[in-house]
Specification:
This protein has five helices and no strands. The protein has about 140 residues and is an all-alpha fold. It has one domain.
Length: about 140
C-alpha cells in the first residue's frame, strides 16, 4: 500500500493541518490580530478575545511538541522534514544523526519511498507525510 492509494486520507490530513494552522493563527498570533478565513469569497475578519501573544508559552509548547513528534517520526521512518528543503543525501545525514543520538539500541529499519515495505512499517508512512504537511502548513514552505 503506497501513499498514492491513500489520497482521501492524505486529503483529510492536509485539510486538518490547514485548519490547525488557521486556529493557531487566530489564537497565537497576538491579541487583536484577526484572520480572514474565507478571504477569496468574503472580506470578513474573524477575531477572538481568547488569543495570546506570539511569544507566549502556548506557542512554545506547540513548537516543542511538533519538533519532538517530527524527530520521533524521522527516527522511526527514516525520513525527516529536511527532505522538503534539502537533497536526499542531506536528509539521510539528518536522519542518521537523529538515530545515532536518540534511537534505541535496537536498529530501526530505514524506509525509502518506492521500496517494498513490510506491513507494520506501512502504518508509519502516512504519519510522516502528515508531519511533513503540518511543517509546510505552519512554515508556509512548499517544496518544488
Amino acid at each position: 500500500m503506497h501513499i498514492s492509494t491513500q489520497r482521501v486520507q492524505v486529503w483529510w490530513l492536509a485539510l486538518g493541518a490547514f485548519h490547525l494552522h488557521l486556529t493557531y493563527d487566530l489564537l497565537g498570533s497576538g491579541i487583536g490580530w484577526p484572520i480572514q478565513y474565507l478571504w477569496l469569497f468574503s472580506g470578513t475578519f474573524y477575531h477572538t478575545p481568547y488569543g495570546w501573544e506570539l511569544d507566549a508559552w502556548q506557542n512554545w509548547i506547540a513548537v516543542v511538541t511538533l519538533l519532538l513528534v517530527c524527530g520521533h517520526l524521522a527516527i522511526r521512518s527514516g525520513h525527516s522534514v529536511a527532505e522538503t528543503m534539502l537533497p536526499a543525501e542531506a536528509d539521510k545525514a539528518v536522519v542518521a544523526a537523529l538515530q545515532q543520538r536518540f534511537a534505541s539500541p535496537s536498529p530501526t529499519p530505514v524506509m525509502r519511498p518506492g521500496a517494498d515495505i513490510p506491513w507494520p512499517a506501512v502504518a508509519l508512512v502516512p504519519h510522516y507525510r502528515s508531519c511533513r504537511m503540518i511543517f509546510m502548513s505552519v512554515t508556509g514552505y512548499a517544496s518544488a
